[in-house]
Amino acid sequence: MSAAFRLDGRRALVTGANxxxxxxxxxxxxxxxxxxxxxxRRSCAETVERIDAAGGTAEELILDLADxxxxxxxxxxxxxxxxxxxxxxxxxxxxxxxxADWDAVMDVNLKAVFQLSQxxxxxxxxxxxxxxxxxxxxxxSFQGGIRVPSYTASKHGVAxxxxxLANEWATRGINVNAVAPGxxxxxxxxxxxxxxxxxxxxxxxxxxxRWGDPADIAGAVSFLCMPASAYVTGAILNVDGGWLAx
Length: 246
Fold this sequence. Notes:
single chain, alpha/beta, Rossmann fold, 8 helices, 7 strands, globular
């Protein structure tokens, strides 16, 4: 395969890489040739094992984004690719939504994305290198949703943050983009898929006629990290089977 579509020699850090979309992204980057640092507040040993079994290279890093000073301090140097995937959600009617739930979601989903990106950029600039940042946005970067006020606000914020960092860092060697997943078949969506009415309503809205697979997100993220996407920055790529086009 052309070197434009390879990541050989790159070092990539993926947050929330222990399961689901984050795990798929880590495996996808490794398949493209990157050495992956699989980071999470829980062990990412299974992700590392999958990468090793497929002939790639990886290591795990315990990184709790609820403790931002420690997370920033634990960010390894000489990383070429940062994927800000980790996120949390809290559900409650907006009129009853607590300040604690607001702060918890905003801290992990938005504040941590900025602070890790900032730490990453400072390291890249100090060594006069180049890098890629890919943030994981959401359909709720564009829509309002229901009963998830802090999640919606945080994902709108991720979209805006992606654009401002792209504006500031494009001439300094860092491309910043985001991927907005649609409805993906993971543990987090199992209850929706098992609810016959909700599952049908969701599938009826998706032109592709199926739930997404985590590997669908991994492919998009990998492309945004490759030399082939060198002129792509500030973009938010919807990977949603056509949901937003409907």
